[in-house]
Amino acid sequence: MFYAPDPGSKPLSGIGGNVATNAGGMSTVKYGATKDNVLGLKVVLADGREIKVGGRTLKQAFGYNLTQLFVGSEGTLGIVTEITVKLLPIPLGTPIMGVAFFDDMTKLAKAVTAIRISGVYPTMLEALDGNTMVALDHYEHTTYSDNSGAMLIFKIESSTDESMAVLKELLQKYEAQNVELTTDAPRQAALEQLRRDMLPAVFAGQNHIMEDMAMPLSKLAPMMDYIHDVGEQLGLKIYVAGHAGDGNVHPTIVWPKDEAMPEAVNQALRLMFEKTLAWEGTISGEHAVGMLKNQWNNAELGPDVDQLQHQIKALLDPMGILNPKRKIN
Ligand SMILES: Cc1cc2nc3c(=O)[nH]c(=O)nc-3n(C[C@H](O)[C@H](O)[C@H](O)COP(=O)(O)OP(=O)(O)OC[C@H]3O[C@@H](n4cnc5c(N)ncnc54)[C@H](O)[C@@H]3O)c2cc1C
């Protein structure tokens, strides 16, 4: 049996933090985020009571769904002290992993969108743009960025001849190059590690801010174009990577270590956030809202829901002692 959520930060993070942030990850495209894999919780409330919500069953109709209220609440409503997770049987068959290269992220995003609606059901569809590949090559001493502008790392469990044929057909249709498929376990582990090393590679030696928008899949490719245009317009180098299969992109903007954040970075973030909301995406897919993004609550949630969030916070934490100023402002 296994617990499915697989955040890139798995070696660095804890299950409490994963629940508090509703962490997603590389296999969310098939198995969902943390919220889809938590059945029950014990939570210590601000007044000291310990409550149990949810349980061990896959279904429960009694009461409101407080389990899902606490998952993703970023420690602002209670302290999670026990977690009952869903375990899944390990799928039969040999998993297949692969890499495919594209001219740019827009073509990659179109391929990902087509794969997602094809019935192939990949377990992983991770994207890295040209800037990220250059950083990774530097970090890993590889040469992936030599001949392409975007890289897709994918995994399929329990494949059939038919699903593999459909996948290959779609990769060809969207002009993927140098496609590599492997069932070799060490090579698969190396590809997963390559994906995990993406952030340290980009962050190395520079100041950075990494964002976390999630788009409806139909807007993933246009968003890639838009982020590229914002970078050009403001003279910024934007690294784009992320969980493309979920429509979740992590644009990272960097600037020199000893310098303050340039104003152009703020402008870029504002433009990307506004476009995300205009296209019915979310500004925060999985990395929490925290203190940096909660000024966008009203824009993302709307005034009525924003007010309701404050009422829930006031009910559960009337003295504001649990992670003050995080998540809601
Ligand atoms: C290299 C890297 C890769 C990443 N990849 C991903 C990814 O793929 N997907 C993803 O979703 N995120 C990712 N992240 C972001 C982050 O690691 C995750 O969101 C992770 O879930 C945070 O867990 P943590 O244990 O580090 O929590 P912390 O940072 O320690 O805590 C996060 C918040 O949760 C609260 N909290 C922690 N424990 C509890 C508890 N028991 N009860 C109540 N509140 C609690 C804390 O107070 C804090 O507000 C990545 C980060 C890095 C650095």
From TrEMBL:
<keyword id="KW-0274">FAD</keyword>
<dbReference type="Pfam" id="PF02913">
    <property type="entry name" value="FAD-oxidase_C"/>
</dbReference>
<keyword id="KW-0285">Flavoprotein</keyword>
<protein>
    <submittedName>
        <fullName>Oxidoreductase</fullName>
    </submittedName>
</protein>
<dbReference type="InterPro" id="IPR016164">
    <property type="entry name" value="FAD-linked_Oxase-like_C"/>
</dbReference>
<dbReference type="InterPro" id="IPR051914">
    <property type="entry name" value="FAD-linked_OxidoTrans_Type4"/>
</dbReference>
<dbReference type="InterPro" id="IPR036318">
    <property type="entry name" value="FAD-bd_PCMH-like_sf"/>
</dbReference>
<comment type="similarity">
    <text>Belongs to the FAD-binding oxidoreductase/transferase type 4 family.</text>
</comment>
<dbReference type="Pfam" id="PF01565">
    <property type="entry name" value="FAD_binding_4"/>
</dbReference>
<dbReference type="GO" id="GO:0016491">
    <property type="term" value="F:oxidoreductase activity"/>
</dbReference>
<dbReference type="InterPro" id="IPR016166">
    <property type="entry name" value="FAD-bd_PCMH"/>
</dbReference>
<feature type="domain" description="FAD-binding PCMH-type">
    <location>
        <begin position="1"/>
        <end position="90"/>
    </location>
</feature>
<dbReference type="InterPro" id="IPR004113">
    <property type="entry name" value="FAD-bd_oxidored_4_C"/>
</dbReference>
<dbReference type="InterPro" id="IPR016169">
    <property type="entry name" value="FAD-bd_PCMH_sub2"/>
</dbReference>
<dbReference type="GO" id="GO:0071949">
    <property type="term" value="F:FAD binding"/>
</dbReference>
<dbReference type="InterPro" id="IPR016171">
    <property type="entry name" value="Vanillyl_alc_oxidase_C-sub2"/>
</dbReference>
<keyword id="KW-0560">Oxidoreductase</keyword>
<dbReference type="InterPro" id="IPR006094">
    <property type="entry name" value="Oxid_FAD_bind_N"/>
</dbReference>
